[in-house]
Design goal:
Largest sheet: 7 strands, parallel
Shape: globular
Structural class: alpha/beta
Order of helices and strands: EEEHEHEHEHEEEEEEEHEHEHEHEH
Helix content: 25-40%
Number of strands: 17
Radius of gyration: 21 Å
């Protein structure tokens, strides 16, 4: 049986998110051909051009519609179902980003099929590993082979596919009635020049031990010093030190930086679930009994308010 995979492009402000290339890397473990990308946008030609460069992609199709100017799951889902049925795809994959987490369950519901979440390894076209119990265990699941498989891909488990490709780009018309019960009002997001938290090679995080929103400036400044993204524990978010889009963990973002430095973070299971794929973990905490030291590659017991200035002086 041939497998045809449709990947839903994750994009914002006219730029393709790297999560799409990571999803392609997962798809290439399922099949080495027939991997298409669907771009839903008001004018998706530019985004489709970016997606066409991802190695392994066969064709990029873009469905342009004014209603697609802003990603809304209720509007996107019926179009994805139409594209999946039109192309007779066997798999529909999306990233496990905020975009994908919102969208893919709705796609599965409209297709009337179960969904596999957070694919982290592929054993076969319908057999995958996925994390359970906050990432403390891994289970292997087998999906029905006689129906379309809808799944999200755990982007932290896959490097981004390279971009030396020149896939075909085609517009596509989807005859589908769009729902009117949901419409875009506004988007509120933190403007930042720092690296993206989910794709950065270096991340510096702060926890409740940072103490306050004002004190978090130390974390920002040190991150800027070494060119890192900034994250936070759920405790820091709940305390109001930082916005929730900076949260790392099971209920936040799953990340896989080469270097993860955390200050004043105890190491709750919820947080550890978000950094299981990190390369080198460096933990700084004045509580020598903090659980974070059990998984850290490098641990330093001390006061972050003394250690961070020392680190800044050391890196110059």
């Amino acid at each position: 049986m041939s497998h045809r995979i449709l990947i839903i492009a994750d994009h914002l402000d006219g730029r393709l998110n790297e999560s799409t290339a990571r999803t392609v890397a997962c798809a290439r473990q399922i099949t080495d051909r027939e991997i298409d990308v669907l771009v839903l946008a008001d004018d998706g030609a530019g985004i489709a051009g970016e997606a066409a460069q991802i190695d392994g992609v066969s064709t990029v199709r873009h469905a342009d519609h004014p209603a697609n100017a802003h990603p809304t799951a209720a509007v996107f889902a019926p179009q994805i179902v139409a594209a999946a049925e039109q192309g007779q795809y066997s798999h529909v994959l999306g990233p496990n980003t905020t975009f994908g987490k919102d969208l893919m369950p709705r796609v599965a519901a409209l297709l009337g099929v179960p969904m596999v979440t957070d694919i982290m390894a592929v054993h076969g076209p319908h057999e995958f590993d996925r994390p359970i119990y906050a990432g403390n265990a891994v289970t292997t699941v087998a999906a029905p082979a006689d129906q379309v498989l809808v799944a999200s891909v755990r982007c932290a488990s896959y490097p981004a596919a390279s971009t030396d490709n020149q896939a075909a780009v085609e517009p596509i018309t989807l005859e589908v009635e769009l729902p009117g019960h949901t419409r875009f009002i506004s988007l509120e997001q933190q403007a930042s020049d720092r690296p993206d938290l989910q794709t950065a090679s270096k991340v510096v995080s702060g926890g409740r031990g940072v103490g306050s929103e004002d004190n978090f400036r130390l974390i920002y400044d040190f991150a800027d010093k070494i060119g890192a993204a900034v994250g936070a524990s759920r405790a820091a978010v709940d305390a109001g030190f930082v916005p929730n889009d900076m949260q790392v963990g099971q209920t936040g973002k799953i990340i896989s930086p080469d270097l993860y430095m955390c200050f004043g973070i105890s190491g709750a299971i919820q947080h550890l679930a978000g950094i299981k794929d990190a390369g080198t973990i460096v933990a700084i905490n004045k509580d020598e009994e903090a659980p974070i030291f059990e998984i850290a590659d490098i641990g330093l017991v001390g006061d972050l308010f003394e250690i961070i200035p020392e680190l800044e002086r050391a890196v110059g």
